[in-house]
Design goal:
20% strand, five-stranded mixed beta sheet, alpha+beta, six-stranded mixed beta sheet, disordered N terminus, 15 helices
């Protein structure tokens, strides 16, 4: 009995009813009786390795409280079973009578913060299922236990010297940090001294964090310093690749390149605010939300994975920012849309970005992204972790397939002439056909569309506005003799020689 950290306390009918109504989940499991105590302890172990949780004894799998007889012997047997936890756990036990002589026992544990096992095996909770923890997860959690002293980022960089780092970027960090009052104005201009102040050089050795932040040479030892950028036609990864760029860059350069690429790639819509005669150009997603998401992807990645990278994929219906590596321990996707702790996998890297004013360190980044999207009138992003990759998805229509949706951005992008980013298949077909002037019905034919108004608004209008297509009778836009032809810019855009 003395094993329990709170003894047995009486809970309320209301609380028990709430638990039962919620059903089994990532933090709650039902057991019909303490005869299942061994399996229950596996689940308690999984809870301790996750978010914490509670097992209810005397409850059927369907969530009906039937209770069981609870004697001193029952509690002693539970206590003996609890002694098989490594590291020790001290579950709290709550007891409630549901019928004469029948009680429900609620046994709960908090998140351990360290890897816990039961009878030599570590377990994890996945939705409402308890399973043996995979070796990779177990090793990662063990590594994170040592996070304060032994991390990938604070280990010596292989074969890297000061001459291999971007000195201009280091000096830029110094100046921005001084401007933000996050570094003393008297800080030396010596790049080695600056690294020492930032904790990026230890006993004269360049750390791997410094290499990722400021490196100029990444192969063969640091292939994970990779940024992948791609624009795909349609809504699937199997669609035609309209733009594809892959480059090894240090962290600060990767953020700048990703932001600049999106600025060139995403369509820009004209919007006239109510009461104003001046046009306001809008990206499909607020620029600050995209930038915050990219910075988070770069600095919170798991750089211990040599195959890792950050990827930005733009489809006709969404923008995805992908980061190879799982969420840090204690963080999951659901937590990112509400207040949550700041768990930094790479505190040295996060600290360098923080000094420049690029990020805060309060765990508010995702909340600010959501707020920015709401203020902009677009949906907040989806956060997910699947197959060891964290993905942030902004769902917004970028191509004409979503032409009937609110907020559609179907016009051509502002990418350099010579690419066809954000042009739909139908728009490219129009430019191909209109190399020789064609009337509207002939341009509509290959698309299979029958609604002339929608075809004009969704396909032709963006091409006309972008100067890729022109009318043969511009002064009579509705003339029955009206035809359309591809401009010189349009020809260049589809890779044809100007006439």
């Amino acid at each position: 009995m003395g094993y329990f950290n709170t003894g047995c306390v009486v809970t309320t009918v209301v609380q028990l009813t709430t638990w039962l109504a919620s059903g089994e989940s990532a933090t709650l499991e039902f057991k019909k009786s303490t005869a299942e105590k061994e399996r229950a302890c596996r689940t308690l172990c999984a809870f301790a390795n996750g978010q914490g949780g509670r097992v209810l004894f005397g409850v059927t799998p369907a969530g009906k409280a039937v209770g069981q007889t609870v004697s001193d012997r029952t509690l002693e047997e539970l206590a003996q079973e609890f002694q098989n936890f490594e590291l020790p756990l001290f579950p709290a036990v709550e007891r409630m009578a549901v019928a004469p002589g029948l009680d429900v026992l609620a046994v709960s544990v908090a998140r351990s913060g360290r890897v816990t096992s039961f009878r030599g095996v570590a377990y994890e909770r996945v939705l409402n299922t308890t399973r043996v923890m995979p070796r990779e997860t177990y090793q990662r959690l063990l590594l994170e236990e040592k996070h304060s002293t032994v991390r990938w980022e604070n280990q010596p960089a292989v074969g890297v010297t000061l001459d291999d780092l971007d000195k201009e970027e280091i000096l830029r960090t110094r100046q921005m940090a001084i401007d933000q009052r996050r570094l003393s104005a008297g800080t030396s201009m010596d790049v080695g001294d600056i690294l020492d102040r930032l904790g990026l050089r230890v006993d004269g050795q360049i750390t791997q964090a410094a290499q990722i932040l400021y490196g100029t040479k990444f192969l063969p030892h640091y292939p994970q310093a990779l940024l992948k950028l791609g624009r795909f036609r349609g809504t699937r990864i199997t669609g035609d690749i309209l733009d594809n760029k892959q480059e090894h860059l240090h962290a600060f350069a990767a953020v700048r390149e990703a932001v600049a690429w999106l600025d060139r790639t995403l369509p820009l819509a004209a919007h006239f605010p109510k009461g104003s005669i001046f046009r306001e150009d809008r990206l499909p997603v607020p620029a600050e939300a995209l930038r915050e998401t990219i910075v988070n992807a770069v600095i919170h990645r798991d750089y211990s994975l040599s195959f890792g990278h950050v990827a930005i994929a733009v489809f006709d219906d969404r923008i995805e920012v992908r980061s190879v590596g799982e969420f840090p321990a204690g963080i999951n996707a659901a937590m990112l849309s509400r207040e949550h702790p700041s768990v930094q996998r790479n505190p040295l890297m996060a600290g360098a970005f923080h000094r420049t004013g690029a990020v805060e360190v309060w765990g508010r980044g995702t909340n600010r992204v959501i707020e920015a999207c709401h203020a902009y009138g677009v949906p907040s992003p989806d956060y997910a972790q699947v197959g060891g990759v964290v993905t942030v998805t902004f769902r917004v229509a970028l191509g004409p397939e979503g032409g009937d949706q609110v907020g559609t951005m179907s016009g051509p992008s502002r990418h350099h002439v010579g690419t066809m980013l954000a042009l739909s298949r139908h728009q490219v077909e129009v430019l191909e056909l209109a190399q020789i002037s064609k009337p509207l019905p002939e341009l509509m034919g290959p698309s299979g569309r029958s609604d002339r108004t929608k075809f004009r608004d969704q396909v032709l209008r963006p091409l006309l506005d972008a100067g890729l297509l022109e009318m043969t009778l511009p002064d009579k836009p509705r003339s029955p003799n009206q035809q359309y032809r591809t401009t010189v810019a349009g020809l260049v855009c589809i890779g044809k020689e100007p006439r």
